Amino acid sequence: MSTRRNVKSDANAAADAHERGRDYLGLAQIDKLLACAKAGRHGARDHLLILMMFRHGLRVSEAIAIHRDHIDLAQSRLWVPRLKRGLSVEHPVEGDELRAIRRWLGQRDDFLPWLFVSERRQPLTRQAVNYILAAAGERAGLGHIHPHMLRHSCGFALANRGYDLRLIQDYLGHRDPRHTARYTRTAVSRFNGLW
């Protein structure tokens, strides 16, 4: 019996991994998720958390690691310290996001370094973020939503806007373009105008 790996099968499985199922949200679904998060008990925090995870393609560990001093409100900039050997970058912060940050910070009376904190004045945990997203997803009627869906949603949204692979790769902090190619390969905008 041969122990040689079937390289062709491995390559096909990797190339068509997107066919396993849709693991991202469209912009209308993101809007519903944000609205439902805002209506919750910790609406300002949860809305901002989901907005930033989507807009900046943050992993859970990156979102909960953001400190207040990573945000420059005067310059509308966010320093994104990427994990998993990703490339850390500075991102612009749009007006609605800037207002959401100010609204959340305006509700706080502490000087803790983390941007996202719990009622117990501790940084949010991965489990807390999973719960926040799952609860907002259920309220929005979107079913089970997991945090990494927001990162994928960011990549697909940028690809559908027509941005090239290299820009999306840098924005998401990918070192290897193969991790980014899935977004541009299946982008709807690539097929616009074919007919």
UniProtKB/TrEMBL annotation:
<dbReference type="InterPro" id="IPR002104">
    <property type="entry name" value="Integrase_catalytic"/>
</dbReference>
<feature type="domain" description="Tyr recombinase">
    <location>
        <begin position="20"/>
        <end position="195"/>
    </location>
</feature>
<dbReference type="GO" id="GO:0015074">
    <property type="term" value="P:DNA integration"/>
</dbReference>
<protein>
    <recommendedName>
        <fullName>Tyr recombinase domain-containing protein</fullName>
    </recommendedName>
</protein>
<keyword id="KW-0804">Transcription</keyword>
<dbReference type="Pfam" id="PF00589">
    <property type="entry name" value="Phage_integrase"/>
</dbReference>
<dbReference type="GO" id="GO:0006310">
    <property type="term" value="P:DNA recombination"/>
</dbReference>
<keyword id="KW-0229">DNA integration</keyword>
<dbReference type="InterPro" id="IPR013762">
    <property type="entry name" value="Integrase-like_cat_sf"/>
</dbReference>
<dbReference type="InterPro" id="IPR050090">
    <property type="entry name" value="Tyrosine_recombinase_XerCD"/>
</dbReference>
<dbReference type="InterPro" id="IPR011010">
    <property type="entry name" value="DNA_brk_join_enz"/>
</dbReference>
<comment type="similarity">
    <text>Belongs to the 'phage' integrase family.</text>
</comment>
<keyword id="KW-0805">Transcription regulation</keyword>
<keyword id="KW-0233">DNA recombination</keyword>
<dbReference type="GO" id="GO:0003677">
    <property type="term" value="F:DNA binding"/>
</dbReference>
<keyword id="KW-1029">Fimbrium biogenesis</keyword>
